[in-house]
Amino acid sequence: MISSSLVLELEERRRQALLAGDLTALQGLLADDLVYVHSSGACDRKDSYLAKLSGGNLKYLELEFGRLQVQLLQQQAAVVSGRMSAVISKDGQHKNVASLFMTVWGYGADDAWRLHAHQGTPVPTS
């Protein structure tokens, strides 16, 4: 049975895996049909996102989630929205990122919760 605390635990596992560069953990958390839209507007699927992380083109040096809100949809899906602040290394350049984000978690036929979608939007400056 889904609960807000379970979904928040999944988000924390994702955050920790990104910081650690733990591609095995991420592989298990991400759905095969993942659509990952970065706050820059770039879009990845599961394979391309993992390739960026494994190739060193994208690395999370610092990553914090805040103001998380969970919407439970039946027992099959959950939507999380919140704020993200990060320091990333993208193509060898350090960059500060501040965004609002929404993720969609779904319960699949394999009896596991997976991240199906991520949408990031830059935090407005004014």
Please give a handful of descriptors for the protein shown.
single chain; alpha+beta; 3 helices; 6 strands
Strand content: over 45%
Rg of Cα set: 14 Å
Tally of alpha and pi helices? 3
Report the structural category: alpha+beta
Helix proportion = 25-40%
Report low-confidence residues grouped into runs of 5 or more. none
- What is the mean pLDDT? 94
Shape: globular
Distance between the ends:
41 Å
Strand order of the largest sheet: 2-1-6-5-4-3
Number of strands: 6
N-to-C order of helices and strands: HHEEHEEEE
Sheet with most strands: 6 strands, mixed
Quick description:
With 126 residues, the protein is α+β, with helices and mostly antiparallel strands. 26% of the residues lie in helices and 52% in strands. The protein has a six-stranded mixed sheet with strand order 2-1-6-5-4-3.
